[in-house]
Write a structure and sequence with these properties.
mainly alpha; binds iron/sulfur cluster; about 0% strand; Endonuclease Iii, domain 2; 2 domains; Endonuclease III, domain 1
């Protein structure tokens, strides 16, 4: 386990400072206009690019405006509409179940706390934290595949389990920066620190990264 020492915290703060300068617009790249749209887009984004999800969602969001709308649609109809995002059977099942649960238990609205969110169909900690940060402007650490890879390469975690990584980073990064940190990591993972062949020579945090030139 990596200890959250003052040096590590200082290094994390400098990493964030540089990444913020590099990506001043870092934010959620899924298109949405309310929490319900975001959660449905997030479910669709599993094993799919945000770009593809953003192509599919405008027609969906026009048709399905409430949690009950999503719940009422037949499984086969929704499967057809979301087929291009992959894993469409499971996604359609989760989306309909989530719509039903929200309509029945929460008056069609998404609860705004993580512990309740993770009890809902199709919502794990990653999606719950994304909702906290991007829909409700609350603190959250969003551990996706990019976040996981970068946190390890930058030496901020030695855990593999996303929940443990979330708590490792919560101990290192101040709460006010959790959301910014999450988006900065994802942006950097998508634009420079690729899974294969990261571009270390042009990386703004290479002087702070123990993996620079070694991946
Ligand atoms: S120096 Fe290389 S491995 Fe480290 S964060 Fe930058 S791109 Fe990733």
């Amino acid at each position: 386990m990596i200890k959250a020492t003052p040096q590590l915290k200082r290094r994390a703060a400098e990493v964030l400072r540089r990444l913020r300068a590099e990506y001043p617009d870092a934010d959620c790249e899924l298109d949405f206009s309310n929490p319900l749209e975001l959660v449905m887009a997030a479910i669709l984004s599993a094993q799919c690019t945000d770009k593809r999800v953003n192509l599919v969602t405008p027609a969906l969001f026009k048709k399905y405006r409430t949690a009950a709308d999503w719940a009422r649609t037949p499984q086969a109809t929704l499967e057809k509409e979301i087929r291009s995002t992959g894993f469409y059977r499971n996604k359609a099942k989760n989306i309909r179940a989530l719509g039903a649960a929200l309509a029945k238990q929460f008056g069609g609205r998404l609860p705004e706390d993580l512990d309740t969110l993770v009890t809902l169909p199709g919502i794990g900690r990653k999606t719950a934290n994304l909702l906290l940060v991007s829909a409700f402007r609350r603190p959250g650490i969003i551990v996706d595949t990019h976040f996981k890879r970068l946190s390890a390469r930058l030496g901020f975690t030695d855990n593999e389990d996303p929940d443990k990584i979330e708590f490792d980073l919560k101990a290192i990064v101040p709460e006010k920066d959790w959301g910014a940190w999450s988006h900065a990591m994802v942006f950097h993972g998508r634009r420079c620190c690729y899974a294969r062949k990261p571009e270390c020579p042009r990386c703004p945090v290479r002087g702070l990264c123990p993996s620079a030139g070694k991946v």
